[in-house]
User: Which sequence fits this backbone?
């Protein structure tokens, strides 16, 4: 099992969610986060006082899938979230050791 | 105002009878204007300022403005009105109106000020006293102790505001000199703005000023506040004609066009300089335009008003974005940069642009002999006299208020935590 974490532009959240639903992904965890990469921050202006804002608002999605789905999910995310401009985000894939569904006690693949 | 006072000062009973007949139209307009000016403080200015404050201090900022209104109005009734609009014996009358109308002693509900009840005049003028001192709060938010502020408000209305009002509008020295100030360029805006700067310098800057980002909690609140100020300003300037008449009509149109020109000017300057037109910039330009036209509203042409508003806004921009940065004082919400500087410009511009029209002008060099240079000199004189009284008076009142309340500045912990929770035990937003 793998966990796919992706940080994307907030306005792409709906597109990505819908695209993942179409390929049969049934659950995910989403949080509003802040951060920066190559895009760096931007500046805000109040009555001539310029404030540099380092951290930009992003959305982080966490999805746990079976190993054989990873490539398809990654491609789907890339297709839905890409604008071609700087700041489109990243995808991180990591191993998951164990999963339990609390209600039924099912484990691993059955619990996803 | 002058017309009413001249009429009232004619002690001939026959003339007084002929003048003093209640006009329902005038009375209705003056009561409505009172309500409009009231709206400017606990709604307009409070939102305008509150929106620019950091989230942890918005409630304190709002409370300072609303608190200023309630305290100032009561003090106004107790003694402020008497000092401002009473008549003192002999030479003292050049500066203060004396104490014969303490608690409105000697004024009955049936008495008239020209064509409407004196009680309406008292209420109308009380709302001016309140907004003037409330303007000063913008310079010292996020660090002035609330208790010090409340004491400051009460004393300042009596020691600074009422004497200045008497001198300009109530029959004192500048009134006799012939200074033109239609609705309060000197009395309200220069006065309140300079008091703010004096307080800001005496209190010192906020912790982290110019080093950390101090982001406004919501420019939308500020924009709504500016809109409410504009709405209320029809009472402020239109009501300063003291009747439902053609001068009020002139003031309503000059006020609108100058303000719109002010909004455009600030927007364009930012667009050129920073490549982006900000909403805060448009709202600031609107307020600067309103301030600039205030002393001139009933004296100038529509073209003159357009010019006064546009330049007033540019002057405000200079004060806020250039001068403040250079000199390094923390005039937090720019009470000085906008109200003092645009008010100063408006007071001088009134001398330059006032129409030579005897039906509009108050007694002064321009009306009496068409002497515009002389009028301009009187305008300069009024600016300097008002500035000096505000400067000295504010220092004195701050020291008294600070001594009574054990120091004027909040402690470091309160300042970093935010005054909302530390001073009031409330939060502006429970999200």
Assistant:
């Amino acid at each position: 099992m793998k966990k796919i974490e992706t940080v994307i532009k907030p306005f792409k959240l709906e597109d990505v969610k819908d695209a993942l639903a179409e390929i049969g992904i049934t659950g995910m965890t989403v949080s509003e986060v802040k951060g920066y990469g190559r895009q760096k921050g931007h500046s805000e202006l109040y009555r001539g006082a310029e404030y540099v804002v380092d951290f930009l608002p992003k959305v982080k999605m966490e999805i746990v899938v079976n190993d054989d789905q990873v490539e398809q999910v990654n491609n789907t995310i890339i297709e839905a979230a890409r604008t071609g401009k700087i700041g489109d985000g990243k995808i991180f894939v990591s191993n998951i050791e164990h999963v339990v569904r609390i209600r039924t006690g099912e484990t691993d693949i059955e619990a996803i | 105002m002058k017309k009413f006072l001249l009429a009232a000062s004619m002690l001939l009973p026959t003339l007084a009878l002929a003048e003093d007949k209640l006009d329902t139209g005038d009375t209705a307009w003056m009561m409505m204007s009172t309500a409009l000016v009231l709206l400017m403080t606990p709604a307009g200015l409070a939102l305008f300022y509150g929106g620019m404050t950091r989230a942890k201090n918005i409630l304190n900022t709002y409370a300072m403005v609303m608190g200023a209104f309630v305290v100032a109005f009561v003090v106004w009734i107790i003694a402020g009105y008497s000092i401002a609009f009473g008549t003192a014996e002999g030479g003292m009358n050049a500066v203060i109106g004396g104490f014969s109308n303490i608690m409105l002693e000697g004024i009955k509900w049936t008495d008239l000020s020209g064509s409407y009840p004196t009680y309406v005049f008292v209420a109308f003028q009380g709302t001016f006293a309140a907004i003037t001192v409330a303007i000063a709060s913008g310079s010292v938010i996020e660090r002035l102790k609330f208790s010090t502020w409340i004491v400051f408000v009460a004393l300042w209305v009596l020691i600074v505001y009422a004497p200045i009002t008497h001198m300009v509008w109530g029959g004192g020295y500048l009134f006799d000199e012939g200074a033109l100030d239609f609705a309060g360029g000197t009395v309200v805006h220069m006065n309140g703005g300079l008091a703010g700067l004096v307080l800001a310098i005496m209190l010192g800057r906020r912790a982290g000023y110019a080093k950390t980002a101090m982001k406004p909690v919501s420019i939308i609140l500020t924009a709504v506040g500016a809109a409410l100020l504009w709405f209320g300003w029809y009472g402020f300037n239109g009501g300063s004609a003291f009747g439902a008449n053609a001068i009020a009509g002139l003031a309503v149109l000059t006020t609108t066009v100058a303000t719109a020109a002010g909004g455009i000017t600030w927007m364009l300057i930012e667009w050129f300089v920073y490549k982006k037109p900000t909403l805060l910039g448009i709202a600031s330009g609107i307020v600067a335009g309103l301030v600039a036209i205030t002393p001139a509203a009933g004296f100038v042409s529509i073209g003159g008003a357009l010019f006064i508003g546009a330049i007033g806004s540019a002057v405000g921009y200079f004060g806020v974005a250039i001068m403040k940065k250079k000199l390094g004082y923390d005039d937090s919400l720019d009470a000085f940069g906008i109200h003092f500087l645009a008010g100063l410009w408006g007071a001088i511009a009134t001398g330059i642009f006032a129409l030579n029209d005897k039906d509009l002008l108050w007694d002064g060099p321009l009306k009496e002999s068409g002497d515009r240079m002389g009028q301009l000199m009187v305008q300069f004189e009024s600016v300097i006299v008002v500035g000096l009284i505000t400067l000295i008076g504010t220092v004195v009142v701050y020291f008294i208020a600070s001594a009574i309340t054990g120091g004027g500045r909040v402690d470091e912990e309160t300042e970093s935590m935010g005054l909302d929770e530390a001073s009031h035990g409330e939060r502006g937003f429970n999200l």
Q: What stands out?
A: Chain A touches chain B at residues 44-53 (CB under 8 Å). Chain A has three helices and six strands.
